[in-house]
Amino acid sequence: MTARQTRGVFPAAHERLRKAAAAMPAGTAAQPFVDALGELVQAQADTTGIVVLHRWAEILERRFPPELPDPDRTTE
After folding, report:
1. How far is CA 5 from CA 8, 10, 12, 21, 31, in A?
2. Of residues 50, 9, 43, 12, the one with CA closest to residue 20
3. Distance (Å, whole) CA 48 – CA 35
4. Which of 11, 29, 36, 65 is the most exposed place for a label (fewest CB within 10 A)?
């Protein structure tokens, strides 16, 4: 697919992704993955180039934060 063809196909595919994501029931195990994919695709739509690595890291860090220690949990 050429760059010109891609520019024509991307908006419609992006819209189908948004509709499919909106149709998913909230709270499913897949929700963080769906949200991350939607945000990454939106980031791509917002740029004329590629989504740079630091932007990917920001999105993934927000959607999949590191587990923080539980202050109420004690270990023996």
Report:
1. 5, 9, 12, 24, 31
2. 12
3. 22
4. 29
Reading the block at residue 46, the tokens are 């917002």
> Locate tokens 């909106």: which residue?
22
Say what the alpha-carbon torsion angle 43, 44, 45, 49 is, to the nearest 10 degrees.
130
> Which two structure tokens, joined as six digits, stand for 69?
């220690």
Closest CA to 45 of 14, 21, 17: 14
Q: pTM value?
A: 0.72
Dig out the tokens for 45 from the structure. Answer: 């739509």
pLDDT in tens, 12-58: 998 999 999 999 998 888 999 999 999 999 998 888 778 999 999 99
